[in-house]
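User: Can you write out an input/output pair for a complex, sequences first and structure second?

Assistant: Here is one pair. Inputs:
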Amino acid sequence: MSDTTAYVVFTPSGRRGRFEVGTPILECARRLGVDLDSVCGGRGMCGRCQVLVAEGDFPKHGIKSSPDSVSQISAVEEKYASMRGMKVGHRLGCSTRLLNDVIIDVPPESQVHRQVVRKQAEARDITINPVVRPYYVEVGEPDLYHPSGDFQRLASALKLDWDIELQDTDLYVLRALQTTLREGDWKVTAAVRHTLGKYDEIVGLWPGLKNRLFGLAIDTGTTTVSCQLVDMASGEVLAVAGAMNPQIRFGEDLMSRVSYVMGKPESVTEMSAVLRDTINQLISENCDEAQVDCTDIIEVVMVGNPIMHHLALGLNPSELGVAPFALVTNVAVKVYAEDDLGLNTCLGARAYFLPCIAGHVGADAAAVVLSERPDLSKEITLIVDVGTNAEIILGNRDKLYAASSPTGPAFEGAEISCGQRAAPGAIERMRIDKETLQARYKVIGCDLWSDEAGFDAAIEPTGVTGICGSGIIEALGEMYLAGILKTDGVIDGDLAKKYDCVQADGSTFSYLIREGEPEIRIIHSDVRSIQLAKAALFAGAQLLMDHMGIDKVDRISLAGAFGSHIDTKYAMLLGMIPDCPLDKVRSVGNAAGTGARIALLNAQSREDIEQLVTRIEKIETAVEPRFQDHFIKAIAIPHLDQEFPNLARTMTLPARSEKEKKEAEANNGISRRQLRKMRKSGG
Amino acid sequence: MSDTTAYVVFTPSGRRGRFEVGTPILECARRLGVDLDSVCGGRGMCGRCQVLVAEGDFPKHGIKSSPDSVSQISAVEEKYASMRGMKVGHRLGCSTRLLNDVIIDVPPESQVHRQVVRKQAEARDITINPVVRPYYVEVGEPDLYHPSGDFQRLASALKLDWDIELQDTDLYVLRALQTTLREGDWKVTAAVRHTLGKYDEIVGLWPGLKNRLFGLAIDTGTTTVSCQLVDMASGEVLAVAGAMNPQIRFGEDLMSRVSYVMGKPESVTEMSAVLRDTINQLISENCDEAQVDCTDIIEVVMVGNPIMHHLALGLNPSELGVAPFALVTNVAVKVYAEDDLGLNTCLGARAYFLPCIAGHVGADAAAVVLSERPDLSKEITLIVDVGTNAEIILGNRDKLYAASSPTGPAFEGAEISCGQRAAPGAIERMRIDKETLQARYKVIGCDLWSDEAGFDAAIEPTGVTGICGSGIIEALGEMYLAGILKTDGVIDGDLAKKYDCVQADGSTFSYLIREGEPEIRIIHSDVRSIQLAKAALFAGAQLLMDHMGIDKVDRISLAGAFGSHIDTKYAMLLGMIPDCPLDKVRSVGNAAGTGARIALLNAQSREDIEQLVTRIEKIETAVEPRFQDHFIKAIAIPHLDQEFPNLARTMTLPARSEKEKKEAEANNGISRRQLRKMRKSGG
């Protein structure tokens, strides 16, 4: 303590070392490899290196730490605090000098590699490991006697201050370089993109200090496109915007879009263009909401099924429409967001497309894997991402399988007589009184059940508009539990004599959920649509289980908008998913979008998923004869010969006679035609 | 000889080895590292691996070699010869199998790294070391059971057959990939660009076998733009096209173009666009002449002075118009020829710009260095590249200096009353009869002198149109030798009394070269223009000699269109260049264009010049007081105080009295103003 050095311990890292008295805390942190952020390189401008000086005795370290262990608050800190504000007790690491032994705490927001906490239980936090970071530098001015290019002096400053080694630089950087340098009076912030173990590139350049940069995680679904605007330093989602996929005008489902392209190859450009326009609209909405300039977006991650992936890149998807469903490329693709895709971002922003797994299992499935990481567990996880198609992933740390199953759009409320997308006014929950067979229900946007007082007023002005995917699942499940729906998927016409809610509908019967305007009912063909969809899903899962040689799974994750609304119990009751302890069946929300966000924020995750997809075994349902067999048996409710012991422990399942099963088996004959039809349109 | 192996010796490499009988000669060559070309990878399609089987006894090797030492002419060879033709005695290395000990000669045209012989004496041959090469592969077809992208199977084939490791691939390659693969029935040729020690990239892809690829060497001068179309395998120049630089409409000289941009920054785009259009016109002319498809151009090299370099890249050159003349970048720049520059080439073709040396010494000077390689010799070489400005390079293997000197356009015939560019009809040679003072001359495009019989008829229909740069130099030199021109640059008015060809012209006198229509004469201001230009050139050279601490040079190379027409003796007589043994003064033609071609054909040369320019010391004439002093003294003819002993040994130089010298010194006062004017316009 009497010499000219002092000892500093950083928490929470525990890194420690002895430095000359007077050394700035930021400098100590750097030399010890402590994760303490800085954009301005220690000039007291960015405020990223804020630390806390611990106060008290720390016998473990033999240190008595106090605010006096470091230098007094400097003029630089006062200026920063007055301009940008600073929490009490916070110090700028670059302006605070070591005086005596001290304990310095680096709060999470001052760490580059901070954690983004995911709300969902069991989900791992996202560690920020930036692909692009801002670096402030002061560039040497040109000298007539020692001529050198402005770019070389910028590169030298980045090397000297930040140890950044630039490679070839793109023309757009050079074109704006001289103006930016002079506008910033030779002080600029460069956004530098780091490709792991390879090279550094300038993505953007701004005069002066630029503290915040942004990224986009874009999920291009068949039906909807969603776009998250993310703060690249904090990982915070600043805005989320969504829209219908404008390509719907070229075909509702994927295969009709591919057919359109096959007939008119030049339409690829048109289809890419309308998608681009929609994404730009979403970017604009995001930026307006978060008060962000779109030219500060320096990285984009895109996910989507293979056909959407191809169309987003301007690649003709025709080959994906016919066997052997050849992808143009199955590895991750990195392009220019502005120049290659026409997105309104920083000129140098790159768009990273996650790898596709197979011709039917796309970058969206890869994103789901990245979000859920089934490869990190010994337990066997079944992940089902239900959109217009269902992506199914099965496995554990030893082995992973993936398949796409042609469920069609029924789970999204399409092809259902009173169906609609999940939106305010849609029935999402339902219960049937076993005595009266009357339904009561809840609609999205209202907390009351339909039989509670004030319901009619509460749902104004939207009213009840239809029934969404999760509502249909519950409706059919409740109908099955109440004996209205039989195991063969037929609405029991005998009940029509006793109950008003069961009504003849041509040669079949329907079940009335709600009278009035609009009237909501489930008709025979609604049940058939859901049966076919859920059979495809179940059969796909079973096929992967066959390949893995297992007959039960340890966990099930339901992903997608549908999966996030559904009561998992009903999904199992209906035979959408195999039996599993119910507490191990989780809704994981928009896992593809989350995976995209992980890839946006964490450079290592890209390497991980690029490696991981090469280990995933792809199963093509179209060429597996077993799939057809599984499918036929899965049409019955819940299934012709599968048992659901875990479900049976939580509710009383209707008993099924052998006669009933036989009827169900006989009825399935009708579905082979429908199966072929689904294959054609479902992709 | 009795075992199952045989011995093969390749000439001229001398590489030798023993292989199993039956091994194809191409395979032997590959395993021995013999430089034997192949595009098709040994499938008998490309004909690049042709070899000759030596016949006779070779006691040195203990081999009796004969056509029977290898397999008979195969069906594949017969087919190739019938379709494409083959010289007698030539064999396809891939189809010819080793039977017995043999000597195999690899002719130059079958070597990848063949030499391109340069006509000019002393010039080193260009070794072809391709940046881009074609590789034919047969790609695996997609497999439903083992899904992989088409690109991955292409990459695998390139890896397997050619050991090529592809990195990230550009979108334009992916967009055309599936169509090309299927069009070629899974047989394609990829043009792969190799970046030394770094990575391989696909530049273009064609169905089937693609044997020939092309490159462009483009020299964008202030006044003219020239474009050479080169066969990338043979190095042959297939076509040369040239045009006026269309930017002349924005300003005749560089500084007026920069002024234009300063006043209207958005005009950079316009100036780049007109240049692009002209280059595309030249490409089109080249391709028409050589019957080449422009999409088969897979590499471009561009050179030019710093301002042209910037404008070609769409970089605002304003900073080059004012001290400290900051370049945007001084290293080599690699961009996309089509996407970044708008040139009509293969979509993936890159355009490589040689590095600029300083704000006034550009990529054209770097190209001259690459052509002449003064750094490889112990002798001190002075290189002068005379265009609108003069680039001057001085040095040897120990040290190199470079400067740009503001000569103005007088050497190109501009600012001369009867001046014109070097073109048919322009006077390029002149002699003056010492008795009559009558001139006789030769014009470009005619082998006769003007006093020879049939001259008038021979020059029809062009006639005599003016006098070009080299013609003016000879005219002034001859006038000086004949005593018409005095050392102070004044035409001797006393002679007007005796000779008709010396005539009063206001307060000064002129010399009549030719009567009639058009009349060609040299007037006082013509002499002044040339004096200023040659003084700038001489002073620049002298400044570099000062820096190097030398008072004479070992060799002089005159480059540029002007330098290639000039009689070097007259250049020295007029004091354009310092004294030097006349047999060491050479015209080296369009050295910048040659340097561009070297960079196009030889990958290593790019590394060499990129390294070399960092070692060149840049001298800024504008800030060297000595330059002004040297300039003033160099205005006299040939010089106020320099001696030309080497020149004096080959011709009788006029004696100069001290009075004459004094007059010359006094007269120079007028030139300080003109010097300032030149600085402003010359850049």
